[in-house]
Amino acid sequence: MPNSERVSVDVDGRTLQLSNLGKVLYADTGFTKGQVIDYYARIADVLLPHLAGRPLTVKRYPDGVDGKFFFEKNAPSHKPAWVRAVELPTPGSTRQRETIRYIVVDGLPTLIWLANLAALELHVPQWTVGPRGGVRGADLMVFDLDPGPPATIVDCAWVAAIVRDVLAEDGLYACAKTSGSKGMQLYVPLEEVDPERPWEYARRLAQRVAKEHPDRVVWQMTKALRSGKVLIDWSQNSAAKTTVAPYSLRARPAPTVSAPVTWEEIEACRTETDLRFTTDEVLERVAEHRDLFQRLRGPGFTLP
User: Fold this and answer.
1) Structural domains in the chain?
2) At 93, is the pLDDT very low, low, confident or very high (cuts 50, 70, 90)?
3) How many C-beta atoms lie closer than 10 Å to residue 141's C-beta?
4) How far apart are CA 143 and CA 164, in angstroms?
5) pTM, entire model
6) How far is it, in rounded angstroms, from Cα 107 to Cα 87?
7) Measuring CA to CA, which residue among 55, 48, 60, 63 is closest to residue 84?
8) Across all residues in the chain, what is the average pLDDT?
């Protein structure tokens, strides 16, 4: 398919102009922009509920994963009128902006429109906005497990089981996913709460696990401390931070996905490829298991 070809498609009643569908975005595998759009269309049923109500930050790769990329928080000026956007205050903005006009993905047309912009990675906060744009409390708590080489996702799996057991002591249940890159994340669904609460709870838990396993775990961000250990990044619970969404593509050499996994898979992880999933594999997993993150959309836990 020639790169310059433009195709007009109807998506749930919205007309979209798709372009450059044959352009290769993952050079190592030949995965094209058309395949990116196709993946997001096919995964939408399980992805969209995890984006709903969450102000979106995207990483766009117009020249593919080997080219230059940029983070985009502000809705572009050329966005269609039907793409929802909410204007929110941004205290402490690195660009000295008082507000940012965020996109909120409220349906398949917006998702496909973003995919056509080569928005490969979708990142969201642990809180939502209401129908009129009012900011709500945190309804998720996240632990981002980041391995410092030579540690790998195998080490993250070991740490994940430790964190799961500590959470269980407080009556909390965690769902896990791969980051689609090097590490993994654990999520706990919460009753809406001030983001300071999960931020502080997660920090204390990370400190405890690091103290009990100092040879394998670190809770400080200092790079020099992280070699061969797994960082439990509790700071992702800051209201100002985002984490890659479940089922989002990642900009790696192959089109890997941030994929929900079972605890059985985590406990069985012995090699770096055991918890590495590409788009086709994730679609097959969803066909078999549906959404392994379904529990995050149910009643939330109260933090102790």
Assistant:
1) 6-129 (3.90.920.10), 137-297 (3.30.70.3300)
2) low
3) 28
4) 10
5) 0.95
6) 19
7) 55
8) 95
130 by Cβ neighbours in 10 Å (0-12 / 13-18 / 19+) ranks as: exposed
User: Mean pLDDT over residues 213-223, rounded?
Assistant: 94
- Distances, alpha carbon 298 to alpha carbons 46, 49, 86, 189, in Å: 14, 11, 25, 8
The predicted pLDDT at position 53 comes to 97
Mean pLDDT of 194-202: 98
Confidence of residue 2 (pLDDT cuts 50, 70, 90): very low
- CA 246/CA 261 separation, integer angstroms: 10
Amino acid at 173: Y
Q: What is the largest CA-CA distance in the chain?
A: 58
Give the distance, in angstroms, between the CA of residue 271 and the centroid of all CA atoms in the same chain.
Answer: 23
For CA atoms 236, 240, 246, 251, the dihedral sign is negative
Show the tokens assigned to 32: 């094209």
Instruction: Determine phi and psi for 303, rounding to 5 degrees.
Output: -70, 140
| Token code pair at residue 71 | 């983070």
